[in-house]
Every structure is written in C-alpha cells, then in structure tokens.
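FAQ
Q: What does a multi-component entry look like?
A: The components come first, one per line:
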Amino acid sequence: MNTVIGLIAGSLRKESFSKKIAWALIDMAPEGFEFKIISIEDLPVYNQDFDDYNNVPESYVKFREEIRSIEGVIFITPEHNRSVPAALKNAIDIGSRPSGKSVWNGKPGAVFSNSPGNLSAFGANHHLRQSLVFLNIPTMQQPEVYLPHINKMLDENGNLNDKDTKDFLQKAVDAYIEWFKKNK
Ligand code: FNR
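Then the predicted structure of the entire assembly, as tokens:
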C-alpha cells in the first residue's frame, strides 16, 4: 500500500497558480508514495458553535476524515496581504478542532509558497509555519521553497513548463520524503 501525502493548495480560485503547482507535484511522488489533492473549497467559515456534535457541517466531517487518512501534508500557499490566505487558515482551524481532537497532530509537513511577484509569498510561508508549530506538524526546514514569478512558469494549459522550477520542486519533494521518513 502506498503512503498517502496530502497536497493542500491555499486558494479557492479556479485558475489558481497554487492549484496548478499541486497538480504538477502529483507526478513527482516517488515509488511507494501517492500525493493526493485535498480540497478546502466547501468549508464554511469556522465557528466554534460547530463543535457541538449536532451542528457540525458535513463538509467539516469529510475534511477531517481526509486529513486523518493522510500521513503527511504539503501546503502550497499563495499570500494575501503578507499572510496566509483566509481560506487556508480556515481549513487549518477546522482541522484543529474540537479541542483535543486535532487531525493535524504529528503529521510531517512542508510549506511551498509562491507568488507572481518576486517575494514568493515569504510572509505567508512563515506565518503558516507559526501555526504548524502549535499544531505539532513537524515541518521541513530545508530546502525552503519559495517560488517567485510563478505565472511565468506555467504554459497556456496551466502545466508547469519551466525546467529549473520543476527540477527544484523534485529536489524539494525528495527532501520532504526523507524528512517524512525520519519524522513520521
Ligand atoms: C494578493 N496577492 C498578493 N501577492 C503577494 O505576493 N503578496 C501579497 O501580500 C498579496 N496580497 C494579496 C491579497 C489579496 C486579497 C489577493 C486576492 C491577492 C496576489 C496573489 O499573489 C495572486 O492573486 C495569486 O495569483 C494568488 O494565488 P493563486 O490564487 O494563483 O494560487
């Protein structure tokens, strides 16, 4: 059986660059591993009242189940106003609750950030890491993955066509798998 690693893109946008990176990563999984995209699209904004057993939205149940079923997670995040996009933070919060029942605990992680500009969503990358520390997601430190000018790295069909970026991502994936094996 393959070890399943979740890929979570931090954007709801149909033509999201982050989603396109996630699709490109699927083919980079080494033997024995499967990379599976986990959607954060249908998650209502977290409200602590939903922790009540009778109130919990069906989409929360499904999302938490999906996170439970993966063994590690790679976040592919853009940046909104120098921080983590609200949709991604929302998904993280949903997975962290009810208190004491977080589905994130101990799953080795990585953060790959990207932007059309040249700062590569550095702010989002590091704000996200702050939450991952609290959630006990041991997160790969090296290589750091910052992808600038991501809009220029994709062709008209949305495929990642820049060889250097692909090679770098493959190296980052390989390093993540090593990290995963040591920290699972
Ligand atoms: C942005 N964008 C952006 N980019 C960046 O590098 N730093 C930032 O702080 C922001 N802030 C920001 C706020 C909001 C509300 C939006 C909608 C956008 C631009 C962002 O990088 C661009 O829209 C990306 O294409 C978003 O990622 P996806 O959806 O392509 O994955």
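Q: Is there any commentary attached?
A: Sometimes. For this entry: The chain has a mean pLDDT of 97.
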